[in-house]
User: Fold these one by one.
Assistant:
Number 1:
Amino acid sequence: MSSLEELIRAAAARGELTYLSVVPVAGKGPNNIGWSASFSPGATWGTGYGLAADPVEALKLAMLDKGLGRLPGKLEKTIVTAEKPKGKKPDPVDDSDFLGG
């Protein structure tokens, strides 16, 4: 398995390091503390999760989570990709009231 530093640097180089978190939780570890980690890449659906007694191991598990990129079955069936409208561009919206102008 890659080191945590290698995983983080590779994700950053791909522009995929958008969210990385690790927090202590009650669990099996020193002083009954475990670690919960999560990772959300930029271009892949979902969030990876990891739970371990060691924070580095939890982060590695989150970044290598096999659940990343898999859409839930119901959602996968309902996604519709809209086509880009052709022809004339829409008129600009007057948002001066919204902007306080």
Number 2:
Amino acid sequence: MKIKKIIYSLKFNALIFSLIIILLFLNVIIPQERNIGTLKIKELSSKSKAYEFLFFKLGFKDIPKSYPFLILIFLFYLQLLFFIFKFSSKVLNKIKAKRPNYENWENLKLKEQNIFFERLRKAGFKEFNLKEGKYLVLNEYSPLGFILFHISFLFLLTGGILLYYTREEIYLTIAKDQEVFLRDSSFSSIKRSPLFLRGEENFLIFLEDLEYVYEGKDLKDLNLKLKIKDSSSYFEGICKINYPLNYKGYKFYPLYKDEAFLIEIQNKEGYLVEKGIIFSNCFEKENTFYKFDMEIEAEILCQEEIKIKIKYNEKEDLFTLKENFKISFENYDIYIKGKIDWIRFMVVKEMGGFILIIGFLLGILGISFRFLFPKKEIFFIEDTVYFKSDYFNLSYKNYLENLGGVDGKT
């Protein structure tokens, strides 16, 4: 019983909250595996005993996934549940109890009882006749606003946990008239894997059409038509910048447009050896690298004109990348057959967004209900009116005086 009392005390709550803040601060200042990669983490650990202790003894190479952080979040969640139930029971018992502790309330002298009480009834005050006197209350359920506000933290915390620990991010590159599997390693990279749920669906995506609008050199709008199919269903939809396409919980966000080139490699006898698509990434000013089966290496250089650097048999040449262009080597010919547009997508699957919205709305509703409709009480004994408002007691006093039938002198 004593341990339970300690665990659910405000001091213990403050300790947990402080430790969570410290860990979140460390999450910012300590290198994390998700940012610098596993190899860099191992390199830092080999050079420093402190890093080795933090990363592998405490599990702080990814703090939000570490056991200390998860245990603290779990304890904080339990405490929040306990405080909500405890606070709710107190509020509900207070609402049920109609005998107020009026002794320390401010008071006014009553002059004309009938006028005063008739105007209070018209204002919406609810009346109760008690042994000691008459009790009137307005907005008696206003304290429930605080219960709603505290419950909103449950939704916000639950939604935040689900959003972080179930989120999956895939960056997908697809050209017009091309179909690509979501998890095709040649065209997509999984930047973030969920901790609690593993994404295993792998459906086919086809970019049927795209329209885009430029304002100067800046891309103003993208309008894309996607076809998605898997073993059980087929789906068509439109997505735009800031208006993602939603399919089975996956949201397709188009990020930007760039150019891709159709390429064919033939031997000197004219037989096709390899063909495919090479993507430039000049929107992000990134050079891209490709390696073909015949030990031919290519690098697309983002300059004023897009260049391609070809390396074969220790020979290196630089060419302007354009349509219907032929590059000849000793044993092979490389043909740039055509230019097509391609789109970079961020594909996101996550849970908890709707729960967060509910929590936010409950919080706004609870605070608004509490402060816009404060509980106002009046207790009448003989010729004295005792009054109390949860907020703005002075303006409440002025309101009662303006109703008439009372005297400000006590």
